[in-house]
Write a structure and sequence with these properties.
single chain, 12 helices, membrane, transmembrane
């Protein structure tokens, strides 16, 4: 019983924090690992809610910048412009998520084949992008043009498919529009805050009838584990992306996706 109610949620929470902000798809990894460990939860609420733990880690790391931006909305044009760019990038996923929520949760989340395929395709995309001769024009995440922010938001919609990776879609989208790797990652981090808060809030509301109140302790364990592991990853990722490419993440995605397909084909 302890294995099912403590050890498994702890492992999945750490996995969420480790994978939320690197371009490998935390949702895909959680669904695959949960399936392998025999972990079941009503409405897939566990996998969604514990992502708030990872988001809390981002808030912790960028708290001073967030407070400065919010405090300057009334009188600082730069703060207003940055907040507006994040809002514009946030809206496409809201619209797509509301329209496709039931299909995503009831169909895509339950398909190991979809997740495996998305992991492999995303890995190939990362390897290709890593080789492109992109010359960065935007090196400050707080100064992305509005049209560019909208483009990143449209790219984020792809992450509604489990296995695509929200961070991977937004980082690649920003890179292709001229951001350098660090700025692309930072904008992705900021965009994750309203996106995930909205996603979790809507998921809890829409699945409220299915939520098992006795499973709250499992969510709490996963939440704390995700927060701790995400804190370890965020700063490392910024440094890594500034000095390395995406090959590590691309090959990891391909290996995991191929492993899942092998498991599917071999029963």
């Amino acid at each position: 019983m302890m294995y099912e109610t403590v050890v498994v949620p702890l492992l999945l929470g750490f996995l969420e924090g480790l994978t939320e902000f690197i371009p490998v798809s935390s949702t895909g990894h959680l669904l695959i690992a949960g399936h392998a460990l025999g972990f079941e939860n009503a409405g897939r609420t566990f996998e969604v809610v514990i992502q708030l733990g990872a988001i809390l880690a981002i808030v912790n790391v960028y708290l001073a910048k967030i407070v400065r931006t919010l405090g300057g909305l009334g009188q600082d044009p730069h703060a207003r412009r940055f907040a507006m760019s994040v809002l514009i990038a946030f809206l496409p996923a809201v619209a797509a998520g509301l329209l496709l929520h039931d299909f995503i949760k009831l169909v895509l989340f339950e398909s190991q084949a979809v997740i495996a395929t998305a992991l492999i395709v995303g890995g190939v995309v990362l390897l290709v992008v890593d080789k492109l001769p992109i010359i960065p024009r935007h090196r400050d995440a707080e100064r992305f043009p509005m049209l560019m922010a909208l483009g990143v938001g449209v790219a984020q919609c792809l992450s509604l498919i489990p296995g695509v990776s929200r961070s991977g879609a937004t980082i690649v989208g920003a890179l292709l529009m001229g951001a350098d790797r660090r700025a692309a990652a930072e904008f992705s981090f900021f965009l994750s805050i309203p996106t995930m808060v909205a996603a979790v809030g809507y998921d809890i509301w829409s699945s409220r009838a299915e939520i098992d109140i006795t499973a709250f302790h499992e969510i709490a364990i996963g939440f704390v584990a995700a927060f701790v592991s995400a804190l370890l990853v965020v700063r490392w990722l910024l440094s890594y992306l500034s000095n390395h490419g995406f090959a590590l993440f691309g090959w990891w995605r391909i290996i995991v996706g191929a492993g899942v397909w092998a498991a599917i084909l071999w029963g």
